[in-house]
Structure formats: structure tokens, C-alpha cells
Design brief:
Number of helices: 14
Radius of gyration: 23 Å
Number of domains: 3
Strand content: 15-25%
Length: 491
Amino acid sequence: MSRGREDQRALLLRVARRAMVDYGLEPDYPKPALAEADAMRPAPLDGHGLEDLRELVWCSIDNHDSLDLDQLTAVRAPAAPGEATTVLVAVADVSGLVAAGSAVDRHAETNTTSVYTPARTFAMLPERLSTGLTSLNAGEDRPAMVVEMAVSRDGAIEHERVCRALVHNRAKLVYHEVGAWLEGGGEAPDGVAAVAGLAAALRLQDEVAQRLRQRRHEHGALELETIEPRARLDAGGIQALVAERDDRAKQLIEDLMIAANGVVARFLEARRSPVMRRVVRSPERWQRIVDLAAGHGVALPGEPDSAALNAFLVARRKADPLRFPDLSLSIVKLLGRGEYVVSLPGQKTEGHFGLAVERYSHSTAPNRRFPDLITQRLVKAALAGSTSPYSHERLYELAEHCTCQEDNAQKVERRVRKSAAACFLADRVGDDFAGVVTGAGDKGTWARVFEPPVEGRVVEGQDGLDVGDKVRVRLIEADPERGFIDFVRLD
């Protein structure tokens, strides 16, 4: 193995740290934050109004290398056939240890999110907390915020509540293993089979999640499927770029978290609390989406219509499943970014165009996202009947800051992904690829090639290209240090 490949991890780490600084993020914890985290002790498990829900069969499902476990799920079977099924989501009680204004909190507020790169995860909270004291680790009793939802046969939530409770994670499970099993891939994974009742519980959770998903799609939620290439590193460097796709386990968690986040937003609104919402506004580039659909023989309305767009997406998935992720990526780019906004009691609220929900917050990942930690503090105040721990002005400032820093974190992750891809493609300069245009504007034109799933800039022949166009390109440069992948258009 060459010296260059041995140093790829070090290169990617160097690129990541430099990018974080460039975009106003802190790659290292301040010494006061580390000292504060080292001095913390586990949260008390008795008193404090905690319900004891440890008898439920709780489990976590996450990536195989995830150690910062934010949520668990559990289920109660319906009392009789045809009745609603109750699903529960437990969220790590991070605010029980991380006080507002503390050194740990100030660092978390600076970055507002964990940053994920192939070389290292720059966790929002020190590892003593995020993978230890505030993680819902297997085999541990933990305090949690719990969202309980009774879901009918048609996917409607008939009853919902939020409480503080004591929970116990029975099994740490992995997406691809559970997903393959739920999709009919043989025996239950060892982690599932080892816990009495867990297999049946997961089957029931999956059924409820699919009901919730179907109902959202009926109301216009977009059925999208994007490919997130992930660099596979070992001691010898980058061995592959793996395209990660959805599976039933990921859908299970996604759908239950979307539902739980909606419950939390409604809970706060009902108690006249301010809410930090997650919104995706109606797309400004709707006409380009209309043009893309027209290229497939479908006429969309002249004004943004999520239900019509989703009907088009469903039809395209059936007609061309191989290329559907490319179409999905084009739509995602044209929809525009998500953002955090604050709504006060009585104010008209904006919804989330892509999810087709009106009331939606981020509340289920407080180890990884600062908005979720803010929301958790608002929920605790509402449960206690006390006033908001944040002034309205402060919430507005935080919403704007969190939106900005989330964008910056995504830029860091993209930059490092490009460096990883450039490492992988360094020996393929001069090769030709088929791809799709993923970005077009004043700042340049970008295309993602199909195999390997890598995005780069089209530096010649880009005139007239727009998002969603199919192209053939030739790789003319791959610079790992700068993360540059440059193509020229062939057709």
C-alpha cells in the first residue's frame, strides 16, 4: 500500500478541521467544557416526577457505529382487534445534565449540531455525555422524555401525550440488519432474537410506522429516495464509496420520529408555549420542478402542490426505480433548505412542504442537535407549568443561528465527502461517466455521476444545463486536499 493511501485518514481529518474553522465551527471542545463534562455524574433516577416505564421492551436502532443514542422505541399491542396501537418514543434527557448557559451548553450552542465526516465525528457534546451519561445505552436505566401515540388502523393519531419517564434499553440494533429482516431476509438478527417479545414488538412498530407513512403520503408528503455515498475507511485508506439507501428499519425510525416531533409541537402550542419549528417553505423553483415533470410527460399545477408532486414521484419510482434516486436528488435541490423558525402563541404557522405537516419541531435528537435541546427545555417548562426558559427575542436569535450553523455543518460534511471521493477517484482521471446535474446557478454547475456516486463541478460545457438534466462527463481533475472534482461535458 502506498504512503499516500496510508495517509488518507490523516488528510481527511486535516481537511475536516480546516473546513470547520473556515465555516465558524469549533473542532475542539473548550477546556472549561471538558472539565465540566468530566465532573458530571449520572442523573438521579428516582423522584422528579418520573413514570417507571422500564417494563416495556425498549430498543434502539441506529447505524452500526453510532454510540450517541438519542431515542428508543416501544409499543403496546391493541387491547382488541381493530383498536389503535400505542407506540412510544423515548428521547434522551440531555437537559437534565446540560444546564443552559453552562460551558458545555455554550459550545453546543456555537456548533448547534454534530458534524459527521469519514475521518471523525465532531460530536456536539463531549463523548463522556453523548456516548455515556446522556446516551440511552443498552442495559442502562435512563431518564427520558417520552412521547406516547395511539395510532389507528388508518394512520391517524387518536391520542397523544408527553411525559418524563424512566426507561431501559433492552437491545442496541443496527439499521441494515433489522431492515433486511423486516423485508423478509430470513431469521431475526441475534440482538432481536435474544430479547423475549422484541421480534413481535418490532413487527408491530413497523406496521404502525407504515400506517403513519401512508397517511402522510395521502396528504402530500413527498416519497423521495436519495443516495448518500459513505466512504469506507480502513487502515489502508478509502476502500469503497458505499451508496446508502433506505430500508424498512430506517423508515420505521423516520416515521415514528416525524410523528413524535409533531406531537411535541402540538403539545407546546396547546400550552401556549413558544415553539421552535422546523419548516421547508413552498419551493421558489417550482417552475423548474414543473419542467422536470413535463420532461416525463406529466403536467403539474402552476402553483406549488405537494400532493400532485408526490403522485408524480410515486409514478416515477414505479416506472424507473434505478434512476429514481437521481430524480429525487434533483427535487430535493429545487425544494430548498429547511430552516428553524419561532412561532408564538396564537401566531399563524408555516408547515413543512416535504413532509406535508403543519406543526413540526425537532425534538428527538438532543445529543446531536441544539434545537432539540432547546425544545426539550421548553417541554420541561410546559410540563412543570412554568414560563419559557428563553425570551422570545432569544429564541428568534437562536433559530436564525441554528439554521446558519446547520448549513455550515452541511458544507463541512460536503467538503470532506468531496475530499474522500477525490481520494477514491485520483487514479481515474480521464475516465468518462454518466450522471445527472444536481446544481446550476451563478456559482457554478455540478453533476453527480452514477457509479461511483460522486458529485463534482462541470467546468467546461456547462452552458444551458439545469438541475435534473442527464449528462456524460469526463473527469479531468481529482484533488483530495482541496476536495476538487472537475468534469468536462462530453455530449
